[in-house]
Write the structure tokens for this entry.
Amino acid sequence: MTVYRDVERFADPATSKTPVDKAPDPQLGTGLIDHERYINPEFAKREWDQIWTKTWLMGADIDDLANPGDFVVTQIGRQSIVLTRDEEGGVNAFYNVCSHRGNQVAYEASGNQKVFRCSYHAWTYNLRGELINVPDEESFPQGAPCEQLSIKKVPCAEWGRWVWFSLNPDIEPLDDFLGPIPEHLNPYHFDYWARTENITVEWDCNWKTCVDAFNESYHVLETHPQIQRVCDEYNVQIDCYEKHSRYLIPFGSPSSHLKDDKTIDDSNRGWMLASGLNPDDYEGDAAGVRRALQLHIRESALENGYDFSDMNDDQLTDDYHYFAFPNVTFNLFHTRFSMFRQRPHETDPNKMYFDLMSYELTPMGSDKPECPPHRQFKNGDEPYNVVYEQDAANCEKQQKGFHQIGFRGMWISDQELRVRHFHKVLDDYMN
């Protein structure tokens, strides 16, 4: 039985650089969400036409494109896109295909080079995808004019720590597409963060199955019991915007599903010790730990090399969790966050790619650590994150359930409002 406890929020709407006012809940009805959208190949084909070729997509971390000549190859569906930093410092995005006979021009996932030279017939392109050399050009009776045979470019832009691209040549400006997200997240000053992890995990589920999992906290009670002593997943503020959404989850306080709000367990003790607080001073007052942590983190920030002046007090403990349609999540804490995206499989709606990038805030005056090389593997082949592994286990079982004749469709609660909102935005694009 849920213990209905109020959680005090310490973010002053009048001074917070990240807006914290509750957005009005949209009226989205109570109907079932059809499970066919998760398994039907025809629906996946329509998604490609209406979602993946119409929206802005996150392509790469800026650290991968820090210098002229740096490039990254990113995949969406069957489309391979090359992102580059050119000699003048601009970012570019173009299809990974030679205009001659369709060979690819970039053969590594990332790197640094001055040109892209087709390995088949040596047609050569610069960092902007412009054709600059055709061997034996005189042998083409129709001509081989470089200005007409450059690789087709796609829109690209920078925001935060990332380069974004779109397969839609008429896409609206990135800032317009992202709506409130830049205003909300710019106070985190992403330039000061270091990427510490970069992996791709193949999950046996639809990409939306995974999006749904991270858009609600209702599952924490059963799926993540290990975090209930430090996470009140019930008293969550949910905000839905035009395309995007967020929830604000109090951390440092025990779950409202726990009758005991006095005991400080090992997980909370560890957090307190790491922050410089003595857990023994708060024994019997687990509910008061969250505020104590906020005040202590604020008071000790500068001596620890951090400037949290643009963050409100709640941001010093809580999970500020943002979803940017169609497939990017920012899971933000004060000195660490995860950014992940869900990409559809090229052909199978029952499979997807989970891209996880982890970041840590670098103390002032410290060098940024180097990010380990990108790794890709199937879920279950190696460990990567206990919480996300628990989510993956659910999603893969859920995907099997979607194929059962007896399943009627998804029955959604108010705690899952972001799930319903996501599917409403999806339907708006699809229809």
Observations:
- The domain at 35-55+179-430 is CATH 3.90.380.10 (Naphthalene 1,2-dioxygenase Alpha Subunit; Chain A, domain 1).
